[in-house]
């Protein structure tokens, strides 16, 4: 009985260490946003719920967008950086995971504007409404292509 109890206690003690190791291996998304933007906070929660770690800066969105080479026409309320890629706006975690897996030669991904129904713009205040939108792959040559369509 003492051996079983000891094994159980050792297993329980190891859980936090295993969780930290998993979290440390999760991709880090660094986000620049307004300190008062609720939809940005909801998008960050979406990322965290999908296995990403986040580091948040409550200023510098416009400057970071420019520094990363994201044209203002693709702009939104927050800019992020993950794995060397720019992420502009309410890009679903699924598309960020795909980007990191495929590793295309690109600046990153964008969801221009703030489409209702995209992650962070999908809370109860929107009453289940979903507007169609595209996730756009921003190429280094200044062109863009549809990466994923949401209808």
TrEMBL record:
Stated name of the protein: DUF411 domain-containing protein
Pfam families: DUF411 (PF04214)
Signal sequence range: 1-23
Keywords: Signal
